[in-house]
Amino acid sequence: MTTTEPMLRPAYPLETDRLLLRPYVDDDLEDLHDIERRDVTARYLYNRPLDLDATRSLLDRRRTMTAIADDHDDLALAAVLKQSGRLIGHVTLLRASREHRQGEIGYVLHPDHHGHGYATEAAPVMLRLGFEELDLHRIIGRLDARNARSSRVLERLGMRREAHLRENEFVKGEWVSELVYAILADEWRGRQP
Q1: pLDDT per residue over 97-151, tens digit each?
Q2: Going from the N-terminus, what domains does the chain have, and what CATH number goes with each?
Q3: What is the C-alpha separation between 73 and 126, in angstroms, rounded?
Q4: Taking the mean position of all CA atoms in its chain, how far away is CA 142?
Q5: Does the model's pTM come out above 0.90?
Q6: Residue 185 near residue 155 (C-beta atoms within 8 A)
Q7: Which pLDDT score, from 0 to 100, does residue 193 have?
Q8: What are phi and psi of 85, to 5 degrees?
Q9: What confidence tens digit (pLDDT) does each residue in 71-87 have?
């Protein structure tokens, strides 16, 4: 396939003040399972807590998510503390549509690392990659409407709440509502120093 559309294959690791964002490796299994096995981690996600075999399968999938070339390609990076080398979560960037230049970001952190600003530190890297490297026009963040902490992260990133979809999905035996936040490329560029 020949294309002039932007492709994303970052030079790893990507660095923030306190974090390294890098592809997953086999040695991440224990730390990843420590995140994915918890009820508190799965509370606002589609999945239930994962057993070790399911975490191993997840790790195998994430190890391949290192570049974006086409629609629905997903970049999934391990968020690792520089100081300790410990994996504390992940960040994602999805190209939803080449034609409409749309993307989506996401993040999950180990509950012991909530409230320390790590998501707010890592997510702008994904926005930068989306806007500067993939030439996206719009990036969204979708979340369970009960997840107030995640809403605050997206607001700190300069994203605005565009939708509150009431009881739009049946997840794990209950109707749940979804919030959609978004930011446009020119809005993001206007926020950069």
Answers
A1: 999 999 999 999 999 999 999 999 999 999 999 999 999 999 999 999 999 999 9
A2: 14-191 (3.40.630.30)
A3: 14
A4: 10
A5: yes
A6: no
A7: 78
A8: 80, 10
A9: 999 999 999 999 999 99
Identify the residue whose tokens are 């690392």: 113
**Cis ω before 13 (30° cut-off from 0):** yes
The per-residue b/e assignment along 107-116, b for 16 or more CB within 10 angstroms, e otherwise, is bbbbeebeee
**Could you give the C-alpha distances from 1 to 13, 94, 134, 136, 172, in angstroms and in order?**
28, 20, 18, 21, 40
pLDDT of 109: 97
Per DSSP, the residues of the chain read ----S--B-PPSPEE-SSEEEE---GGGHHHHHHHHT-HHHHTTSSSPPP-HHHHHHHHHHHHT---B-STT-EEEEEEEETTT--EEEEEEEEEEETTTTEEEEEEEE-GGGTTSSHHHHHHHHHHHIIIIIS--SEEEEEEETT-HHHHHHHHHTT-EEEEEEEEEEEETTEEEEEEEEEEEHHHHHHH--
Sequence letter at residue 81: L
